[in-house]
Specification:
The complex is a heterodimer of chains A (about 260) and B (about 625). Chain A is of the alpha/beta class and about 260 residues long. Helix content of chain A is about 35%, strand content about 25%. Chain A has a domain at about 90-160. In chain A, the strands form 2 sheets. Chain A has a 6-stranded mixed β-sheet, sandwiched between helices. In chain A, strands 2-1-4-5 form a 4-stranded antiparallel β-sheet, with helices on one face. In chain A, helix 3 crosses helix 4 and helix 3 packs parallel to helix 5 (about 145-160). Classes of the chains: A alpha/beta (about 260), B mainly alpha (about 625).
Chain lengths: ~260, ~625
């Protein structure tokens, strides 16, 4: 069964078709990777999915419910979590408070003024931090974290509202190679454990081909391939546009340069 | 028709001077990101120096030479200030820079009075241009025609400078991305100095060419700085052409507004600014800011609950306030009540700008509305104090609900300017609605109830109310709502991504801050027994900013202590010397340079580190 069904999604910037008539589905419990060269429309696509950018056309259905046209915060309330390419956290709060904020919001207690926020849902937040192995740093100021740790924190925050689907924009960007593998392994385990789906973009093909269940390739705003990692790896069009063939001295390429 | 045309020409000639000042302000802001409050003071200084020089030098060459030399001299003075002072604070948050330039303004204001005296000075007419020409049968001063030409000439000169010289291209590049410019090997320090000097030169020139038109006086700085800010906001920060357009709009608005809407002529420009900002949040020609700024209060150190030692200090301070009436006379108790009231005022402003990240240049609006709320209830309904204290803040809340709805749709300096606009609109309504508000004379005879009418009883009442309100503010800051408000300040992106309705939260925070400010105003009205339009004026809003920054924005206690120190100091300074502006200005400048963390932040840094380590270990 599909948790997310996208049909005819389009976004134009002036004459540029940044995303053009894109169709795809995210199956329940799968990790779907979205890859493509720079400027292919990956981030535009992502920003439309969580409502940050208004789509020009198309439909996005989350479990048969249309979510296009909703604000990011409304999309989140429907159960779509999101992490950012450039991590966004509340820097003046501690690690655990960042997670607590998300849980407080989930329970719709943002306007409450009587309790101390620092003592609300502390256990739940701590459990989420344990899930991403951040419990040791629970009380550190968020602004002092190493980059990889901020990414893990973002994952914990994204899990706070029991999401049905996670959107992860380059979750492993800027991390060391072993950290990347560890983060994606962690994500894969959580996904399996909680039965949620993940859509992620990534430039590191090791990460993509070792963790994605399926891979979708975008180029110039259009889907040019969608399939199993092994199929995508062998797809000639994808090779020529993005992956490369492995042949370093390709005559044509040298000629064009 | 002829009359309208003359009025139109009058507008054009004022536009030139406005444009000179506003373009200088805009250029400085665009490159150095300094919101130069002292720009009006440089304008005033330009006029004074030009007055002296044109009095001393004869003939046309003497006149125009005097004007140019005056602008040049003031520009050099500006360069000196940039090199000595501003270079030290480019890394500080924007508001500290604003505060430093405000300190400079205070110093210049007092110096001007010492050197040139407090009387208005009438400048010489320009030789050869002191006549009038006949336009449609109306006499129009020749000099005004020169001024009309000056604006476009300066615009062209600036355009050539920025588009046809290497230096100008660097300045434009720095306006877009100063990191990149310095990465390309450009000496930023001298580029900044150059830009600041140019900006000051334009301001001083704008002031100098005014002397044949208007008397030179020592309040012209505040008048022009507000107009210049409005123009820069309408035109878009850092945009010279925008400043030109906006100068034209504002000058014509002033020129015709006085004919069409004499009652509200003073606030027309604020209404126009508010409208422009609602439609175009970055001004007519401005663009969204692409670079991240050092956000105020956006710090690594999270707000922490009090440590045991800090709790003891709070209890000790409370005790001192409790037993104060035993050994203090009525005067001290009066000052004590005033300090308490301003502690609440500062804390409410801190809730908004420190926790909420929404800087207000017009927080006095809600203070004043609260005070007038009481005055009107007493005057028209003869309401007793107990009821009025509860009901009067509603006027402030109503104001905050309406103004806040617009303000939270903007951010940064634009938001701050809109708060200023609303404060000025409120001030103007109160100032001009004589029948209801008493206008300039204020409303008198607002006395507390019998039981609270002696100084001691009133002091205790104030103490109880203020402490309760401060405690409430503190609880709010540490409640889920306070955290959410702070979250919106830290990262809008993240707030949006975890389901936070930013506009609603900030609006609510705005209204809360306004209502506490209103409560402070209510108490103030009873303390003074009267209300005046001053309670809602720009200086009071600025006092609030100084208190908050003085104490330090990163702690809850900071603004409260800042208010106490500021009020105590100004009371002492005013009663002992006539140079209080110079002393206060120098004090502010030293504070900004030496204690950018504020008083409380400074002490925490010096003496609080051990405490925190222990607290961290315990966790």
């Amino acid at each position: 069964m599909s948790s997310l069904v996208v049909k005819g999604l389009s976004k134009y910037f002036g004459g540029v078709k940044a995303v053009n008539n894109v169709d795809f589905e995210v199956q329940k419990g799968e990790l779907l990777a979205l890859i493509g060269p720079n400027g292919a429309g990956k981030s535009t696509c992502f920003n439309m999915l969580n409502g940050q950018l208004a789509a020009d056309a198309g439909s996005i259905k989350l479990f048969d419910e249309e979510i296009i046209g909703l604000q990011p915060r409304q999309v989140w309330r429907k159960g779509v979590g999101r992490t950012f390419q450039i991590a966004a956290t509340f820097t003046s709060m501690s690690v655990i408070e960042n997670v607590q904020m998300a849980i407080i919001s989930y329970h719709k207690r943002l306007l409450s003024m009587l309790p101390f926020a620092g003592s609300l849902y502390k256990e739940e937040a701590y459990e989420l931090l344990e899930l991403v192995s951040m419990e040791d740093q629970a009380n550190r100021p968020c602004g002092m974290l190493a980059y990889g740790d901020v990414k893990r924190l973002e994952l914990a925050i994204a899990l706070a509202n029991d999401p049905k689907i996670l959107l992860m924009d380059e979750p492993a960007a800027g991390m060391a190679p072993n950290e990347r593998i560890a983060l994606m392994q962690l994500t894969a385990d959580i996904v399996k454990d909680k039965g949620i789906s993940v859509l992620f973009t990534e430039h590191d093909m090791d990460v993509v081909f070792s963790h994605a269940n399926r891979v979708m390739v975008l180029n110039r705003g259009e889907v040019i391939a969608l399939g199993l990692p092994s199929e995508i790896r062998e797809n000639e069009e994808v090779q020529s546009i993005y992956l490369g063939t492995g042949a370093v001295y390709d005559e044509e390429l040298v000629g064009n340069a | 028709m002829d009359f309208l045309f003359i009025q139109f020409l009058n507008g054009l000639s004022s536009a030139s001077s406005l444009f000179l000042v506003a373009s200088g302000l805009s250029i400085i802001f665009g490159v150095t990101h300094i919101t130069n409050f002292a720009h009006g003071a440089f304008y005033m200084l330009g006029a004074y120096v030009a007055y002296t020089l044109t009095e001393a030098w004869m003939g046309a060459i003497g006149f125009w030479g005097g004007i140019i030399v005056a602008a040049g001299t003031v520009a050099l003075f500006g360069a000196l200030i940039e090199i000595i002072l501003l270079r030290r604070i480019y890394r500080s948050p924007e508001l500290f820079q604003l505060l430093a330039t405000f300190g400079i303004t205070l110093i210049i204001e007092d110096l001007v009075i010492q050197v040139w005296g407090a009387e208005d000075l009438l400048g010489r007419r320009a030789p050869g241009l002191d006549g009038a020409i006949d336009i449609f049968g109306q006499a129009f001063p020749t000099y005004e025609l020169v001024l009309i030409a000056l604006g476009p000439i300066c615009l062209c000169a600036l355009w050539l400078l920025f588009n046809r010289t290497r230096w100008g291209v660097l300045v434009r590049a720095a306006t877009q991305d100063r990191m990149m410019v310095s990465a390309l090997g450009v000496n930023q320090a001298w580029l900044f100095t150059g830009v600041f000097t140019l900006g000051v030169f334009l301001a001083a020139l704008g002031g100098a060419v005014q002397i044949p038109r208007d008397a030179v006086h020592n309040a012209m700085d505040l008048q022009i700085i507000v107009e210049a800010f409005v123009i820069v906001v309408i035109g878009g920060f850092g945009n010279v052409l925008g400043a030109f357009l906006a100068s034209f709009i504002i000058a014509e608005l002033n020129s015709f507004g006085i004919l069409l809407f004499p009652k509200i002529s003073m606030i027309l420009m604020f209404i126009v600014m508010a409208l422009v900002l609602v439609v175009r949040p970055y001004g007519l020609l401005g663009k969204a800011e692409t670079h991240a700024r050092t956000a105020l209060g956006n710090v690594v150190r999270p707000l922490a609950p009090l440590t045991r030692k800090a709790k003891n200090w709070v209890l000790a301070a409370l005790l001192v306030f409790l037993i104060l009436p035993i050994f203090a006379d009525d005067f001290v108790l009066n000052v004590g009540s005033e300090i308490l009231i301003f502690a609440l005022f500062a804390a409410s402003l801190h809730l908004m700008m420190g926790v909420g990240g929404m800087v207000s240049f017009g927080h006095a609006a809600y203070f004043g509305l609260g005070a007038y709320g009481v005055a009107l209830l007493v005057k028209f309904l003869n309401m007793p104090m107990e009821a009025a204290i509860v009901i009067a803040p509603l006027l402030a809340i109503a104001g905050a609900i309406i103004f806040g709805w617009f303000c939270v749709r903007l951010s940064g300096v634009y938001l701050a300017m809109l708060t200023l606009a609303f404060a000025q609109i409120s001030w103007s309504i109160i100032f001009q609605w004589d029948d209801v508000t008493g206008g300039d004379n204020g409303l008198l005879g607002i006395w507390p109830s019998e039981w609270a009418s002696n100084q001691q009883a009133f002091y205790y009442m104030t103490l109880v109310i203020v402490i309760a309100a401060l405690y409430a503010i503190r609880r709010i800051i540490f409640s889920p709502f306070g955290y959410t408000l702070r979250g919106c300040r830290d990262s809008l992106l993240r707030a949006d991504a975890i389901g936070i309705d930013r506009l609603r939260i900030q609006w609510f925070g705005f209204v809360l801050a306004g209502s506490f400010s209103g409560l402070a105003g209510v108490l103030y009205a009873y303390l003074k027994g009267s209300v005046f339009p001053d309670y809602i004026s720009i200086p009071l809003s600025v006092d609030g900013l100084v208190m908050v920054l003085l104490g330090g924005i990163q702690t809850v206690a900071g603004p409260i202590i800042g208010a106490g120190v500021f009020k105590a100091l100004s009371t002492i300074i005013i009663s002992h010397t006539e140079f209080w502006k110079i002393i206060l200005g120098a004090f502010i400048v030293i504070l900004v340079v030496a204690f950018p963390q504020g008083i409380v932040g400074f002490f925490l840094e010096r003496f609080g580190s051990k405490e925190e380590d222990i607290a961290e270990e315990k966790q």
